[in-house]
Structure formats: C-alpha cells, structure tokens
Amino acid sequence: MQEVIQGIPLNWYITLSSILFCIGVLGVLFRRNAIIIFMSIELMLNSVNLLLVAFSASHGDVAGQVFVFFTMAVAAAEIAVGLAILVVMYRNTKSVDIDVLNRLKG
Amino acid sequence: MVTLIILSALGILTLFAQVLRFKKALFPLILVGLATALYFTLPQYNNNPSTWFSSMLGFDNYSAAFSRSIIVIAFLWFMMARNYFLQETSGTDHFALIIFSMVGAISMVSYSNLTMLFLGIEILSLSVYVLAASDKGNILSNEAGFKYFLMGSFATGFLLFGIALIYGVSGSFDLHTIRTSVATHQQPTMVLMGILLLLVGLCFKASLAPFHFWAPDVYDGAPTPVTAYMATVVKTAAFGAFFRLFYTCFPDLIEQWSNVLWWIVALTLFIANITAVRQTSVKRMLAYSSIAHAGYLAIAIVSMNGDASARSILYYTLSYSISTIAAFTVLYIVSRNSGRDDFGAFEGLAKTNPFLSFVMVVAMLSLAGIPPTAGFFGKYYIFQNAITTHNTGLVIVAVLGALVGVFYYFRVIIAVYFKPEQSNIPVTVGSLHQVVLFITTLLTLLLGIFPDWVLQWI
Q1: Spatial distance between the Cα atoms of B31 and B180, rounded to a whole number of angstroms
Q2: Lowest mean pLDDT among A96-100, B156-160, B285-289, B298-302
Q3: By CA distance, what is A41's nearest residue in B?
Q4: Is A35's Cβ below 8 Å from some Cβ in B?
C-alpha cells in the first residue's frame, strides 16, 4: 500500500485538487440552496487541504500538514458562524434559498 | 507583540463584563486598553524587526505604523459607536467581537508567514460577519451578513489555493524564503497561478472590481456603525496585508502581476465612480465611494516603489478612514433623526445644525481630494509614486475618476447648504459624538497641513 501511494506522481494530486476546487467554485456559483453552497465551500477548502498534504509529503516538510490543521479549525469556525447567520435568516424568511436575498439593490 | 497581547486580553475581559457586572465601567476600560495598546506600538524598529513564534510574526516599522493607524481609527470608532451598541444591543459581546477583529487586523499587518496572513484574515472576517448580521430582527442586516459570509469564505478558498500553490513551489510559508524561491523557480506556471489566486482572494477582501459586487449590499444592509468599521479598519488592514505580501514576496515578478492589477484598478475606478453617481441613498453612495478609494489605494500596489509606496498607502488609509468615520457619524445622527438615509435627509442641515453640516463638508472635501484637506495629499502621494514608476495611464484614469467623485460628494454639500430644510426638528448631537466629530475634522485639516506627522512613521 505504501508503495502504491508513493508511486502516484505529484501532478495527479494537483490535478485532482484542482478539479475538486473547480467543482466547489461551480457549486457556489450555480446552486441556490444555502446548505449546498456551504458544502461547496467546504469542498473548496478540503481540496486545498489535499493539495497542501501532497506538497508537504513531496517536500518532506511538515509545515504544510500543520497548515491543514489551521485550515480545518478555521473551516469549522466559519461554518459555525455561517450556520448561525443562516438560522437567523431562516427565522425571518422561512427559506434557505438564496434567491430570497434580493432586498438590497442599487 | 505587546499590543497584540493587550488587545487579546482586553477582548476576553470585555466578554466578562456582563457576568461580572462591570458593564458601566466597560467603555472607559476599552478606551484605556486601546490607549495602552497604542503606547506599545510607539517604539521604532528601524532595520531590525523583532520576530516572534519562529518568525510567524515580524514587527517592523511598517507593522508598527499600520497597527498605530488601526488603533487610532478604532479609538475614534468606539467613541462613535458606543451609544448604538449600548442602547440597542447587549453591548459587551459586540465590543468583544470588535476587539478580537482588531487582533486579526494587527496580525494581518505584521505577519511574516502566510499562516498568520490566513489566520489574521479569518480572525478579522469571522467577527465582522457576525457584526454585519447583528441586527437580528432586521432582514436587511441578515441579508448583509449572509452575503458577506458567503463571499468572504468563497474568497478564502481562492486565497488558500493560492497559498497552497506557492507552498508547493517554494516548500515554505515564510515570506522571505518564498521571495528567493519564486524568483528563481523553473515552473513559472504554478508560481503565476498561485500569485493570481492570491490576488483574486485579496481583491475580494479589499473589494476591488470585478470582485466588489458584495460590498455595496453588505455596507448598505449592515448597521451604520458596523459599516463604518468595515469601511475603515477592515479596509486599512486589508491593504496593509495586500501591500506587505506583494512587497515582501513578489517584487521580482512585478512585470507579471502588475498588468493584471492594472486592469483591476482601472475597472474599479471606472465602475465604482460611475455607479456612485446613480445612488439615491447616502449610505450606498459611501459604500461605492469606499470601493473607489480601494481603487486609488491599489494604484500604490501597482506602482510598487519601496517604502515610498508603503508611506503613501499608510497616509491614504489613515486620512480616508478619519474622514469616513466623520461622514458615517453624521449619517448615523441624521438618519436616526429623520429615519431615512437618502440625500433628502440632509437637505437644509446647515440651518438646523451648522456644526454638523460643517463637519460633513470637511469630510466630503477630504474624500473628494480637495486641498487643504488630508484626502488631497493622500491622492497626491499615490499619484506621485505612480508617475515615478511610469504608470501615467493609471493616473489619468484615477484623475478622471476623482472628477466624477467630486460630483457625487458635492451633491451632499449642495443638499446641506443650498436646499430648503425638510423639517423643523432640531438635530441634536450627543456629547461623545461632538467629541468624535471635532477630533476627526481637526485631524483631517491638520494632517492636510502636516502630512509629515504620519509619513515619518515608516
């Protein structure tokens, strides 16, 4: 197993995380349900984590993996705040569809 | 470093004010804490920065100057926002959030490692997301907070991907290591991709077009004191971080990224100034004006010219923030009095309250960049650097933008002085607001006469 994982070239990791990142970006841009958008943002952040870990292993440098912990902690805090704001919004609008967010214009 | 520790301790102490029942003493305590924090930013580092936590944070003249500027602005902001927060919210937790976000702002201007840049941005943003949505019953505030959160975390994704690519190239998050390794690297695509993504992330945070579309809505929907905070402290910190990153890490690749940023700046100046003209609400006009000012500030990053550019950004952010605090304070008082925030609310203010209208005129003149106010010299130093580095085209765009700016800033002055008053209700100004307005006006005029007071900080 160890050899199989080490045998995967770095470029594959870069391609995979880029694809995951793009899926996340497209999800944020095109989905209308706020919960799905949160998940897409998580996907963006986690594709970055994958990339960081891959680079960290290839450089033999531990800093990248430490950074991943920070990213995970921040992502958790961000989602906590985001869901709290969403709950407040839901109480006023009874919807998690972001199309209701159209009151501010100009 | 002491500044950061004091601010963190102050934030935690503020959280306890409700439980330990010293809420009455809280506001003076915060002001004293901020003054103490300000005192510890005073020493000069010159050429030997002090680094902390295995060079995660590096304090030098640049970071000390920006921290000083952030604390001064926050001090004025607290005096402006006290009444709103103590009367309409529970106060303590909101103040604590602001102080924690200042901790983020100060890490954003003193990082020497990309980890601290990321953490600083997040500490700052997470608090401000909550504050933007803090008017819980108001659906506009909910919407502002939610939009700000979505766009902010979206931008964080780009920023992180950029950081990851730069890390992949250089094998380190340390700014100086990155500088040496990206300059000599064999794989320019990945470096350029990384720089581009970092640029996108930071342009989102600094609200530069085409990534500015969240800003007007968020500024409009958030409670006015929170908007004032976002337009001043957050903007100062964002540009402090932006400049520090590109000045320390990527000055050797300036030919590659300055073209992209050139177009971003030109687009920002064009869109923001044209759209600001169409606004009927003063709050929204100020939001577009803050996007336009982000455009002027970014000129200093395109025309990277060593410490001279750093000085021009510092001076511009400080003068802009002081005038913006004054403008938002007047807007807050007027819109509270009349219940609306369009240009009509300001009509005939000169007759009902001459002091308030004088303050508003000075603030508008400074934002428009008319001498002898501080705003004029801010633009002057930025344009001077741009011309030194042969970015004359950008200066022409910016001057045209500033001319359009004069139009919409003067609409306020015309409403204040040349229109008949709408109502006979006298506008009363609280004593704390009077102090803020007096200090901001005085500073706007004094900094215009003695710009060296600020310029010598770096």
Answers
A1: 43
A2: A96-100
A3: B154
A4: no
The answer to whether residue A70 neighbours chain B at the CB level (below 8 Å) is yes
CA B401 to chain CA centroid, nearest Å = 20
* Residues in CB range of B314: below 8 A, 6 or more apart: B65, B66, B69, B454, B455, B457, B458
Q: What is the pTM of this model?
A: 0.94
Is the four-CA dihedral B6, B12, B14, B16 of positive or negative sign? negative
Q: Which residues of A touch B142 (CB under 8 A)?
A: 85, 88-89, 92-93
Q: What is the pLDDT of residues A89-103, one digit of tens each?
A: 888 888 888 887 777
Q: In terms of DSSP H, where are the helices of chain A?
A: 2-7, 10-30, 34-59, 63-93
Separation CA B155–CA B163 (nearest Å): 12
The domain spans of chain A are 2-95
Residue of A nearest to B281 (CA): A106
Of B183, B184, B178, nearest to B249 (Cα)? B178
* DSSP reduced 3-state for B113: strand
Instruction: Give exposure, B146-166, as e/b (b: 16+ Cβ within 10 Å).
Output: bbbbbbbbbbbbbbbbbbbbb
What's the rounded Cα separation, in Å, for the pair A52 and B403?
47
CB of A9 within 8 Å of any CB in chain B?
A: no
ipTM: 0.94
Residue of A nearest to B280 (CA): A106
CATH architecture for the domain at A2-95: Orthogonal Bundle (1.10)
Q: Is the dihedral of CA B303, B306, B312, B318 positive or negative?
A: positive
Residue in A51, A70, A101 nearest the CB of B164: A51
Q: Report CB contact under 8 Å: A28, B150.
A: yes
Radius of gyration of chain A, Cα coordinates, nearest whole angstrom: 18
Phi-psi region of B390 (alpha: psi -120 to 50; beta: other; left: phi over 0): left
